[in-house]
Amino acid sequence: MRPSRRAPDELRPVSIERAVARYAEGSCLIKFGETHVLVTASLEDKPPPWLRGTGKGWVTAEYAMLPRATHERTRRESSSGKPSGRTQEIQRLVGRSLRAVVDLVRLGEKQIMIDCDVLQADGGTRTASITGAWVALHDCFQWMVGRNMLNVSPLKDHVAAISCGISRGQAVLDLDYAEDSEAQTDANFVITGSGGLVEVQGTAEGAPFSEDQLIDMLALAKGGVAKLVALQKQAVAG
């Protein structure tokens, strides 16, 4: 039995609330169980310097955890002068995941900055960030279309992410902190709405995992992402 008493293929309760930040062009509050992330999308009317004159835009991301998002207060990374290696890795992952489903030429010479701020952490903050970031980006593009800054949205597909793991010898979906901290294997899958793999991150703790276990986790991840994409569609249709 999982610590959360969920079935192996069962997600935590997921909710997506849009338009939660008054000034941002797109925003949402996404909750994966007790993991809560505020995501905003901000339009910058010029691309990064290295893209000027190319006709292409850019989507990038920043990620941060509030000091009391976890059981004990963590120091703000801004006070140390630079983001940690983990923070840099996650924000690059979020950016890569979104760019995989955006037509950067159609966007034109503009940049969208995605900010993912973890209000409360209970495992899966990067997967919640990616899933919520798609919604915030969607709404930012719709804001631009509504103001004739774009003819059509540059989004080509949905993208969402979910964690899987091997816990007590069994493949399980959407690990919370209690499960993640004791899992023999921890993996994250970023998958598009059409089923394309954007990124797979997998790490064994102790014993290696087998090819069969990887296939089991991938099957769970595909099912989980399909449910998340359905929730994204439901959210933006409202």
UniProtKB/TrEMBL annotation:
Residues 69-89 are annotated as: Disordered. It catalyses: tRNA(n+1) + phosphate = tRNA(n) + a ribonucleoside 5'-diphosphate. SUPFAM superfamilies: Ribonuclease PH domain 2-like, Ribosomal protein S5 domain 2-like. Keywords: Nucleotidyltransferase, RNA-binding, rRNA processing, Transferase, tRNA processing, tRNA-binding. The keyword ATP-binding does not apply. It comes from the Bacteria. Residues 80-89 have a biased composition (Polar residues). It holds the Pfam family RNase_PH. Homohexameric ring arranged as a trimer of dimers. Belongs to the RNase PH family. This is Ribonuclease PH. It comes from Labrys wisconsinensis. The lineage of its organism: Bacteria, Pseudomonadati, Pseudomonadota, Alphaproteobacteria, Hyphomicrobiales. The gene is rph.
